[in-house]
Amino acid sequence: QAPPPPAPLPLVRDIIPSRPAVPSHIKEHNGVDRFRQDIKAVLSELQDLFNDRSVPLDPNATQEAIDARRTQLLCYLSETGKMHEFKAKLKQSVAMMIREQFKQPGNLGGQSPEAAKMISDLNAVLKDEINALLYAEFPAKKLGSDQDTDALQLMLDKEKQLAEEAEINLDFGKATVHLNRRVVAVPKDAQLWYDLGSVVVRSGDIAKAQECFRQAVTVDPTHVASLLAFGILMTVRDKFSEADKFFKEAVSASPAHVLAWSCAVLFYDLESRDLERRTALKQMDTAQKKEKNPAGKVTKRSPYVRSSQFCLEMGSTQMVERAMTQELHRIGDSEELQVTLGRAYLMNRQFEKCRQHLQAALQLEKKSTVSMTLMGHSHYMEQRWPDHRADMPLPPFKEAMAFYDKALNTKPPNTEVLQYIRLARIQIAIKKIAEAADTLKKCINMQPSATAWLGRAIALTMQEDYDRAEEALQEAVILDDHNAEVWGMTAIVALHQSTADGGLYQPKADEAVRAINRALKGGLGTKETFPTSEFILQQAGVMFLKIGHYDDAAAAFRRALSSAQGSEAIFNLNKSLAECCTALNDIPSMIEAHRKCGELATTKADWEAAVRALIKATEQQSKAQSKKYSELLKKDVWTQGAALP
Question: Span 184-195, mean pLDDT?
């Protein structure tokens, strides 16, 4: 009989107890989500901190009160280490984004072009994310009436005018600030983003300009000017495949747009793509025949001239040259052609080539006043007049001034704001004050601006016509009440008026104090629109010193010293500061000022005066130090530029 089968083996689950269910895996947030969460957390905490500062903020608080609260918050963040905490929190999510989106380690070391491009692209991504969150957190105020709409439009127009004024003075940073205010007020307007990008291009920041044009295209994918601008910038950077895409999008967005087709013709010509060039040329001619001006007539202006001016604004000299080559084949040489090339080379600071084309324009048209003006600009820029300051030697000026005068005195004259401002700058610097005042009066009649009124006020002050200077400054404040130079000159004029009768008229002195405080708060420095023989800060300081306002005088001198460059100016500023510190009994600052004077002295007499002042100043603080200076004076060892102990 067969043995019975063995007992079945126990199941594994009976021997090994089952483990608890494995929790489902929670997917980690990606870098973008983490970054958004961190930004929201930081914003929430900042709002709480801002609203919880010592005293609740009045809903109807003035802008000064809001600024004071903001300053208080920034100090608190620095003192408590909160600022560092916020940075550390955001650093982790940014590093995660770098790893995910750019397939790179979180630390972007090195200075290679690839690293620079990656940083630029990362900057664009971060700005887009932050702006989107800020717009969501602080939505723009909805316009509830026609009055609100009119006020907004007035603000947009004023900011644009101030930006244009700043660009005339080559202050691209200030121009960008004004145009930024426009896009913050109306972030969904592609034209405002385009205006900002155009100025940024001319400042030389191509990467930031691309961000602006990218935002414009995001807001309105059919905004032709932004598409063309993006295409031209890609061409400048030799990214032809990307440029091709934007030019195609531009003509697709507006098939009857002459400028779009003419830019496409130039691009295909640059790429030697003859078939596409012929097609684009045909479309351009067709669009040109159909295009009408505001009067209802067919536009006769050459499309190549129009495209060259657009490319000029985008800084593409190469495409301007292509456009003018096409224009040369089309109608032959002309004054306009040569002037356009002159403008292109002037923008690139190729002054010799610029003047060659302008001379060619003058040969074609002897009374080409535009060419004369541009010749003046070329000499003005070449001699570095925009960099001239009160503590620098006077640059050569005869050539620039001669061409400006010729352009204004030849009939019909060429008149433009930039020419008037630059001519007046030279006239004030060389002390042709009456001519400067007249030049600026013509500029104001043509287009009033805070810059022109400021220059006229400076000229009138130098003529000791303080009442009319005050009127000019009042006009300037109306046009731009944040102009630090205007407030600085307001202080100087008020100080002159306060001592006009030999005594001290206190209301005007108080007005001067308020004005200089506004000037210092606005960032007044030593780079001025209309430099004279002394800085505005220096003039104000000397006058405050005379009437016994030592604190205000010292503040002005210290601000001037923070950016002064010329040794003579630094010597004079330190000498005046030492006098202020003596009156204020600020011994350490007085000693330091006298020591600087001794080191910068250019004559033995000045050096001896500084050392004697140091001997007297250090007698009470350190007899040993005072003795060192006494021995130095006895040895008679003055050497210009030698350091003092």
Answer: 93
